[in-house]
Design goal:
This protein has 109 residues and is mainly α. It is built from seven helices and no strands. The protein has a domain at 3-56. It has helices at 3-13, 21-32, 41-54, 59-62, 65-75, 84-96, 103-107. The chain starts with a helix and ends with a helix.
């Protein structure tokens, strides 16, 4: 049975499934990734089922600790990879907003 047929069958069994928070989140995620998902309820449910079947084998969705760790390592930038200009900008913004700075900056002439 195809995802479309399964989506239509599930929609008949549970007509509100396409509006569930889980389906809405997955459809929004897929659309943000550039996947075209039609607004027909059966298409939304089919996209949800397809996502669960083929893509949701990663830690955020399954809770697998190794997968979660792999995702964190793939998406978190270490401090040595951040350009020095970023930290300089943060210091300048802090000073402009009246935070931070060294004692010499606060003493004045």
């Amino acid at each position: 049975m195809s995802s479309e047929a399964e989506g239509a069958a599930l929609h008949r069994l549970r007509p509100d499934l396409h509006n569930s928070p889980q389906v809405r989140r997955v459809v929004a995620y897929l659309r943000s990734c550039g996947v075209a998902v039609l607004n027909r309820p059966s298409d939304r449910v089919a996209a949800y089922l397809d996502f669960l079947t083929h893509q949701a084998r990663d830690g955020v969705f399954t809770g697998d600790p190794m997968s979660v760790e792999r995702q964190i390592e793939a998406h978190v930038i270490s401090a040595d990879e951040v350009p020095a200009a970023y930290f300089e900008l943060q210091q300048r913004l802090s000073r402009e907003q009246g935070y931070g700075g060294s004692a010499a900056d606060k003493r004045g002439p």
